[in-house]
Amino acid sequence: MNTNRFIMRLTILLFLIFLQTNSIVSQTSLDEIDLDNGKFKVGFQHYTSYDSTRTYSRVFDYTNEKIERPILVSIWYPTEQNVDDAEPLTVLDYLEILKEEEEWEHLPNDQILKWFYYQNTPANQKHLTEITTAYANMEFAKGKLPTVIYRPSFQASSIENFALCEYLASHGFVVISSPSRGTETRWFSSNSAREIETQARDTEFLIKEAGKFSFVDHEKIALMGFSFGGLSNIIVQNRNDNIKAIVSLDGTERYQYESLEQSPFFDAEKIDVPYAHMAQKEIPETVLKEDKIDSELNTVFQLYDSIVNSKVHRLRFHNLTHSYFSTLGVLFADRDKRQDKSDSEIMESYKWAAMYTLNFLEATLNKDKKALGFIENSPENNGIGKKLITQKIKQPQKQVFTFQDFNQLALNQNYENLVQLHDSILAMHPSLEIPEGNLNVLGLQLVFNPETSLQGINVFLLATKLYPNSSNLYDSLAEGYLFMGDKAKAIENFEKSLKLNPQSQNALHRLQQLKK
């Protein structure tokens, strides 16, 4: 063989070996994501509960049997139990849960990769043996813990973001998730609005499930969703007052605003809690054309524009495409050569997404000042270059608190303790004005109804405190007492009215009648 040709072939062979070696080195792994876990060890439990208000059919049973809707619950939580003698979960342990949730419980483990979503490659096989930071069935840490309800992507597993869930649990959060399942079976129907409502009801089931645990702090509950899960979380927040924050991992509420509008429960003005949306990189022009994607997806965010009553954090991760906001996506998903970054860049950005999620939850649920500083800082001040993350923060519009708003709150508490209610509202809205005339009309409407007379008196007691020089209000209060048969208090308040306005003909006439 020609020496030069041999040397050339040898050089090419060595170069290919070099590329292959570097490709193996650059493969993703849990260790290389390098999440900085907190002080807690992580416990994990997985079990099945049932929603008896809905029915369900197993898609592969080929029978007409209807069962109660099964809700398969995965829960990550802090534990203080000694884990020295325990075996941590492997990635394969999580994928066995995937099998169960896909209703292929008896599928051999060696079929998992090629049976579901990911290629059966040596690199992916290697992921199956990786060790996680979670331990099965540990004791729960003591105390009341902030809780995050996680909603997966379209028809996805409860464990799709297990690394993020473990990370949050290690920092003191409980994370509860269930699979994203269709209304009637495992699969979604073509009716998006119906499926969004189904996911919302599953989330509300998990909120009630959290209520069974003594360690859950019910004053500190947040929602977190990836992709399709983001849509249903908006609906849940709209109709549940106990939700305190929302985290969206490239949630499709950005891309499918019209689907939200189809829900009778959706109202952008009801989003009144801190909201963080983390978006994928801009989709390249080539991909838009080849995949027939509307270019407006890169620029339009109708929900962001519509939110006026809460602070919105909007972040764009320039090294992440949609799949890589989940652990399974980072580890197993095929890379799109047209737009995906390198494995190391994807892992770094996933880590930053996890850090922003943690700090956002610490700031909003735990009122942690350091975490608040982190999410309020520009990425550059957090040590992140502009080429990695860009951020926008939109402040809530200044709210005008109306008399109707006051009346609704007063009605909610049966028109009791109105002075305290007024003072608490005034602390939040220093420019608050409650018109004298409105209070007078409301008080008269209530007091002349025998079923609400005492409520009307309460309104007038507040009114005379706010407007102590109003002869008309004391006159109305006196009329209320007279209607209720309390002549002594009627005389007392007609006299106050007459003292403030000696020309008050109604007070003069009433006093003459009452003192006969």
From TrEMBL:
TPR repeats: 471-504
InterPro entries named in the record: AB_hydrolase_fold (IPR029058), Peptidase_S9_cat (IPR001375), TPR-like_helical_dom_sf (IPR011990), TPR_rpt (IPR019734)
Signal peptide from the UniProt entry: 1-23
Alphabetical list of Pfam families matching this protein: Peptidase_S9
Keyword set includes Cell division: no
Keyword Lipid metabolism annotated: yes
Keyword tags: Hydrolase, Lipid degradation, Lipid metabolism, Signal, TPR repeat
Matches recorded under SUPFAM superfamilies: alpha/beta-Hydrolases, TPR-like
All copies of domain Peptidase S9 prolyl oligopeptidase catalytic, residue ranges: 166-259
Protein name: Prolyl oligopeptidase family serine peptidase
